């Protein structure tokens, strides 16, 4: 088991607080303590319009530009093709982190394999993670629970998929909500 908090399933809590601070910071650009109710409503509308514009620009960039892959992995290219730039950068960080992982098969029977993935976190410290892979169901699961908490495969699971010499991940690991083709329901679409 990992000896620091980076392998903790509670990691998503810090991410939630960071997003709350980002939202508060964003609104603070438009609204002050001394704003009247009328000013608040107008500024709130301006704020949402600004946010929608930023999303439209980001969506356009996702369709018209490509972030190069950091590795030669076909799996990374699979995510590059589907995910928004922002989410793909998070996935890339996991691919880059994979270089610090050493994968060892500990048990295998009937298409179900158990791996120990050692991740080097400093010159002499390795955190160990147990990763299971079911070749029949094409399912990989790591005890760090990054996929369950943040919706992206962790470096430990990616290391096992490389060890298994897979060239694609199951569609269950490509979440539609991170797709650049997803239609945002909260963004106002003007009718022609």
UniProtKB/TrEMBL annotation:
SMART domains: ZnF_PMZ. InterPro entries: FHY3/FAR1 (IPR031052), Znf_PMZ (IPR006564), Znf_SWIM (IPR007527). Residues 129-165 form the SWIM-type domain. PROSITE patterns: ZF_SWIM. Keywords: Metal-binding, Nucleus, Zinc, Zinc-finger. One of its GO terms (cellular component) is nucleus. One of its GO terms (biological process) is regulation of DNA-templated transcription. It is found in: Nucleus. Pfam families: SWIM. One of its GO terms (molecular function) is zinc ion binding. Signal peptide: none annotated. Putative transcription activator involved in regulating light control of development. Belongs to the FHY3/FAR1 family. PANTHER family: PROTEIN FAR1-RELATED SEQUENCE, PROTEIN FAR1-RELATED SEQUENCE 10-RELATED. This is Protein FAR1-RELATED SEQUENCE. It comes from Arachis hypogaea.
